[in-house]
Write a structure and sequence with these properties.
Two copies of one chain form a homodimer. By secondary structure, chain A is of the alpha+beta class. Chain A is built from six helices and 19 strands. Chain A has a 15-stranded mixed beta sheet that branches. In chain A, strands 16-15-13-18 form a four-stranded antiparallel beta sheet, with no helix packed on it. In chain A, a hairpin with a 7-residue loop joins β1 and β2. In chain A, α1 packs across α6. The radius of gyration of chain A is 20 Å and the shape is globular. Chains A and B meet through β3, α1, α2, β7 and α6 of A and β3, α1, α2, β7 and α6 of B.
Chain lengths: 331, 331
């Protein structure tokens, strides 16, 4: 029978360690070895940084690699564990879900030791790495068919003290957007598992679309700011420039803030992320594909709000989300 | 047996017509009806505009729809036919190729009447629409895992007079980049079929990545400029702003200008499209995924050149293209 998930090195060793998190094999495939970096500088905060949860969101793995190089020189105390690629099978396929079992890693936490490979990855992370951290940063990108501003996000948390600490941690990234995101599809998410154990968990949603040199600089600055705020590194936070502006805001969004497509067709965005819109402003246009005699359909803002995310020109079905709007957070 | 491909309306009718290009059914599926717009204002240039050749490049269909609305007011002479979506099956799947037969529409021209659905689309376009035009604009976007500047492109053409006229037409888009692109995988491309019939064919590569409101404005301005240069519409060309600059340049690139990945891993772009690089400048970094003890590998410019396209953070295999560079065109 398969062994238990384990690390190939001792996390308690002082200084830099590099090795692997071994995810045991199962009926569907043999064992997986996920590269892990650890830097132990003794007493202080205990942080876990993960990327590559979804395989078509590659800012996270790249920023994680950059942070590893920087930490080796900059970290002054505490312990940081970095796992740049949670799901190498999905990354190799540039796919949100794992091709082998079709599962979304971020919906199967805390995982199952006797499950399929995606569930075994979640189980290994939950059992071996999560107990070693008080704070978790999971680096996402919102996927390739949306525009989304650089953001540090959390879902609402029932424990109000943990909620307040999580929002403060998210704001410390100093990114253009801090977001409290209420949605109905949170079962099995990594953050829910971590929060149930009392940990501060921030999910960064770094842009959507594709990885570019300009955006990577913003993402890395955000993670560095958060590491400084935790006290792991000395330094002064910077405020990255996004769309020619240096600004930050804290917003909230709910399921009712999703704008849906009124028909199947090609969605044309008519505004950009972080644009302020008034009731009736044009957000996008839906072009039916079956006839050029059918009028295109305007999609307008239902009320004063800020455009949070917008579909980047995909073909959509009727009732599929094409934009998300948000409002200033009231805690 | 199936009928011949045909239009549901008479292209010679004066004024605006809207209808369909009917692609006959075959063994794999029934007939397809592709929406077509036509505006006949009598004597003058005869232009065909197509989009949606590749299903995950949706700037083309959107810009085509915008141009239709504009032409109805602005066109003063000649005939314009617009087919916003060449391959609706690929567009619905947000897929480069047609899911049903796995074929790339832009590699099966001039098509086959008794072939699979992708070949039948090419056949219908080649036989019914292409003979009606002297000039063709096919609106692409370079696909979602590359950054690419707004560009009007052609391949080298053996007929030097047609080549000169094609480059002049491409330059009339007034986009940041006009490109003569030599590559070895041109068999079955739409432009080769059109050029063999003596037509001026310009392929626009509008950005790569995802559709945004800012980029769509650039794309639409480019197509409007070209329609004005043809004399179909009155007006003065504008020079769109891209990356905070208003500039245009004409470049050429060859297969030897492709930079390849030295190993499998995640590619990190370190420069942006249209950046000028000197020999040895860092273009990107390749991060192997199997170990954090393996050094990341720098990918550097082989000589002085301009970055034409760059992979936007995908996982790549060894020897896969990660960047394209170019040099000023010498005709």
């Amino acid at each position: 029978m398969s062994k238990a998930p384990h690390l190939t090195f001792d996390l308690h060793e002082y200084g830099v360690s590099r090795g692997h998190l071994v995810v045991p094999g199962g009926a569907d495939r043999g064992e997986l070895s996920l590269p892990v970096f650890s830097l132990n500088r003794g007493e202080g905060p205990r942080l876990l940084v993960t990327g590559g949860n979804h395989g078509n969101e590659l800012e996270g793995p790249i920023v994680a690699r950059r942070i590893i190089d920087w930490l080796a020189e900059a970290q002054t105390c505490g312990r940081v564990i970095v796992l740049p690629v949670l799901n190498p099978l999905a990354v190799q396929a540039w796919s949100r879900n794992t091709p082998l079992d079709g599962l979304n890693l971020n919906r199967v936490f805390p995982g199952r030791a006797d499950g399929s490979v995606t569930e075994r990855i979640a189980d290994a992370v939950s059992r071996v790495l999560l107990p070693m951290a008080d704070t978790v940063f999971d680096l996402h990108s919102f996927g390739p068919t949306w525009h989304f501003p650089p953001a540090a996000t959390t879902h609402p948390i029932a424990d109000l003290d943990l909620m307040a600490r999580t929002v403060r941690m998210a704001e410390a990234f100093n990114l253009p957007l801090t977001l409290v995101w209420q949605h109905n599809d949170t079962a099995g998410m990594f953050d829910i598992t971590a929060q149930n154990e009392g940990k501060v968990f921030v999910c960064t949603e770094f842009g959507g679309g594709t990885v570019g040199a300009d955006n990577l600089a913003i993402y890395e600055a955000g993670v560095r700011n958060a590491l400084m705020a935790l006290g792991l590194v000395d330094g002064k936070a910077e405020c990255p420039t996004f769309r020619q502006q240096k600004s930050t805001q804290t917003l909230e969004t709910r399921p009712s803030d999703e704008l849906k497509s009124p028909a199947p067709g090609i969605f044309e965005p008519r505004c950009s992320v972080l644009d302020e819109v008034k009731q009736g402003d044009l957000v996008g246009v839906l072009h039916p594909m079956d006839s050029l005699s059918t009028e295109s359909i305007d999609i307008r803002a239902p009320g004063p709000s800020i455009v949070l995310g917008i579909r980047s020109g995909a073909h959509v079905d009727v009732n599929e989300a094409v934009a998300l709007v948000a409002r200033p957070l009231k805690l």
